[in-house]
Protein: C and PCP domain protein
Amino acid sequence: MSWPGVQALLQLRRRGPQLQRGQQLSEAPLSLAQERLWVLEQVDPGRVSYNVHHLLCLRGALNREALEAGLKAVVARHEALRAQIVPSRQRVLQRPLPASSFGVAHFDLRRYGDAEPEGRARRIAYEAASRPFKLGEEPPLRAVLLRFDDETHWLLLVVHHIVYDGWSKDILCRELSAHYVSFARGEAPRVPELLAQYADFAVWQRQFLQGEVLSELTRYWTEQLRGRLHAGQLPKRPDPALSGRRAVATRTSSVPAALLQRLRALSSAEGVSLFVTLLAAYSLLLRGYTREDDLFVCSPVGSRAHRQLEPLIGYFVNILILRSDLSGNPSFRELLRRAQGMVAGAYAHQDLPMQLLGDLDLAPGSESRTLFALQNTPGYRLALPGVEVTEVDLDAGSADFDTFLSLEHDGDQLRMRLAYNTDLFDARAVEQALLSYRDLLEQVVARPDAPIASYGASAGAAPPRSPAASASPAPATKAQPAGGELLQQLSTARAAQRVHLLAEHLAAIASALKGDPAAPKLSPSRSLQELGMDSLKLFQFIAKVKSSVGVDVPISQELAIAPLSVIAEGLAARLMLEELLQSRAKNEFEDSETEVLLV
Structure:
């Protein structure tokens, strides 16, 4: 990491636009992170990967009116929770719906006369949690209150990820708890005024990510991610059963207090954070499965750098690609030093959204999403006086990742939760990975100066690759014609021929990203939705078009469903507009030059 580069970036931030509260903006653009989620939903409509649900059992004398009033007060306070997502001609916008658009659905289970009402309660909760949001028509939050009897209720909250992150959960629980107490007492809630709304952040972000700031961020990530990239992965099923549901399951374990204390001591001695130590060990575990000395994992980071953003509910998460260098059989201490520099640089440059990373050279099979995080949220839970609040498991989720290892402080231990796509991974393999990871943590704190190859089976639990698998992978199909050759052909082609060239080029890019060199080239009549691209592939497609053609793929509601040939028509129109603008600028310059000469 270049400290002068970081200092230059900090100076640019200080001179850049300041986050200011708008005057009740009637509409605003989506933030770039929101735009990424919205595009993915258009490519795969009906997905519920971004439905975040919390099902709580409330036992005691619940004041239902105070609870509903508290929820409505939180929604009225945070515009993000009532944002309507509306595509326009140029971009996708968010508009705050009136607070009255939100309501709580009530179900009194006693009226059904069921001997075992929990079964019906689960079916109702599952339907609400797994129903896609119509973001253009309804608030991105739904609430359901299920009444078993006077002493037992279930509260279900379902929020779309496009307005919600892990930090937001704490804010929601804290404010709902405070509002409940106030309304139960018959008092007006007293909460500090918000200094901004999420829409203000979205406006600021698009102003900030321009010019020198964007250039410096892009320069850093281009250098950091150059060359062939290999994803760290756990071993998948030999014959993955792709159901299309992307069902997610979770296995848990823990890092006991004594081991956690030793990990902290090692981290402190090496001048690194606990996150860096845990990440380095996880990368070492993945190396054992992939046999790669240069691999990456993705890590979500909450970008709430301004104090005005800390009390806001909203989606402030960016995904960082963290690349580990395990080459040369270093000691674990040396691995920590390498990881520290890499993580520090990534966090200093965390403002660049994933979709702006550019054209990455991903190795075949590396489009998978392996996520890793050490949670640092306050962990606030809903607290209602006189009511016992406990969580209820509800299997209604689906995954937009392959695996996600999340570590969270739980008293004097670390709780490990490894969520995984059940289509791709076997439960026993996931459980074994958790055991191997904990065993590896024991080894690295016991022998931090040992070379990494000396650690036991945990650091290399995968069987040796077959010769075919060990061989260098066949290069992905290249889009033809590419780069300057394509631009040269486009510059001399007639309008219809331009569209044809662009359509063939888009089909070639999509074929390459599918990762099967033996498969026939895709037809330009196919759409991105039909191709079933995941998030990384989709934004690689957009980046490759930008780098080869020189204009952006228009982000619109039709992007997912339009045939590649129709997208090509839009690109051809944009190219023509660019040429007209350049021609006009050239003529104006020549006219002004002539004037000077005449004088």
User: Anything to note?
Assistant: The chain has three domains: 3-202, 230-463, 483-598. The first strand starts at residue 28 and ends at 29.
